[in-house]
Amino acid sequence: MPKKQQIEHTPLLVLSLLAGEDMYGYQMILELARRSNHTFDMKEGTLYPVLHGLEQKGYLEAYRQEAPTGRVRKYYHLTRKGGEALRTETESWRQYSGAVDAVLRSSALGTA
Amino acid sequence: MDRSEYCAQVLSHLRRLSRGERAAVRAELEEHIEDHVCALLDLGYDESLAEERTMAAMGDPAEVGREMEKQYPRGWMILGRAAMALTLLLALFLAGPLLERVPAAWESLAVRCAPKAVLDISERREDFDPLGLDAWDLDAEAVIRDVHFRVYQAGYDPEGRARIAVACWRTNPFQGGLDYGLYDSYSLWARVDGEETGIAVQTTSESISLYGVWAGPGQTLTITWEVYGERATVSITLPEVGP
Q1: What ranges do the domains of chain A cover?
Q2: Domain span at residue B42?
Q3: B-chain residues within 8 Å CB-CB of A25?
Q4: Looking at domain A10-103, does it have CATH number 3.20.20.70?
Q5: Could you give the CA distance from residue A57 to residue A82 in angstroms, rounded to a whole number?
Q6: Would the CB atoms of B32 and A25 count as touching at under 8 Å?
Q7: Fewest CB atoms within 10 Å of the CB: A12, B148, B202, B229?
Q8: Structural domain tally of chain B?
Q9: Measured between beta carbons, which residues in chain A are less than 8 angstroms from residue B60?
């Protein structure tokens, strides 16, 4: 089990989650934990500033709808602008993680 | 800390948000807390423990509030709106002289679209009522280009002579719609039952005139105006005695 870590790329993860379907806040927390095998265990309240920030930028749109639980919830929807941001940020993240991986691999070879 | 206290602490940091936005944030947090508590209750937690665990999972309300506040750059928005308001005021100040023309422009438009309503002869009767109570109101009109001629009153003097009040004005869209002064003089004459016994040719630029003519009830007065080299005529049958 990997050590739980502080999420630094929550906006990217939220955009990624919403690329598949519209979700409400608690649903995102559950889905994020499930997909990361509970690696990303964020404080749940901190999700909302991220959501509202993305909404302010026009990356997300919100609407109210009845959830499967029967309760009305605020759902978030990825906009076209948000989709473009997701593609850009995903590419940046891949370049960054690739660079970190390359450094780690070279260090491992040096210490072998 | 219960959910109410948690939400209150988050909201205490939201100074830039409107009342509606704050209510929406509170509702969303309460809904999230409710979802989490219900999930724990389904797992067999008792109510107080479920609430306690949920509050712990939500994190520091002060941090949530501060981060939420950052997402609403209302200060810049207010500055932007103030700049827009100043620009609007400046534009109004500069457009002041133009605004003074608005009533004239409105009258001009009305003259073009509904001339009958604007050229209501009753106002002229109030302004200039030469024949008084012993007169009949008429509204016979002749138009030559932008000049309107109206016979708006008729009556008889004690000597039995017919009296007619005649008005004249231009519809001038560049001078407030109506122009009671003519730049060019016009001519007027009248016949009684086709005979040249009415009004001899008069040349004037008066906007309102009173003429006397030897004619009686039942006789037809044919008045002709000439201006801009064009003529227009109206015929009125003089009314019976008594208004």
Answers
A1: 10-103
A2: 3-93
A3: 28, 31-32
A4: no
A5: 9
A6: yes
A7: B229
A8: 2
A9: 43, 45
CB contact under 8 A, A46 and B63: yes
3-state secondary structure of B242: coil
B64/A56 CB distance under 8 A: no
User: Helix (H, G, I), strand (E, B), or coil: what is residue B144?
Assistant: strand
Check whether B123 has a pLDDT greater than 80: no
Q: What is the ipTM of this complex?
A: 0.85
Asked whether residue B70 falls in the same domain as residue B140, the answer is: no
Q: What is the pLDDT of residue B33?
A: 95
Q: Are residues B197 and B125 both part of a single domain?
A: yes
Q: Which amino acid is at B162?
A: A
Which pairs from B101-106 meet CB under 8 Å and 24+ separation? B103/B176, B104/B175, B104/B176, B104/B177, B106/B177
Q: For residue range B86-103, what is the model confidence (pLDDT) as tens digits?
A: 999 998 888 877 777 777
**Cβ contacts of A48 on chain B, cutoff 8 Å:** 25, 28-29, 32, 64, 68
- B5 interfacial to chain A (CB closer than 8 Å): no
Is the distance from CB of B54 to CB of B36 less than 8 angstroms?
yes
Closest by Cα among A10, A19, A5, A96 to A53: A10
CA distance, residue B108 to nearest chain A CA (Å): 47
Residue B189, domain CATH: 2.60.40
Residue B103 at interface with chain A, using a CB cutoff of 8 Å = no
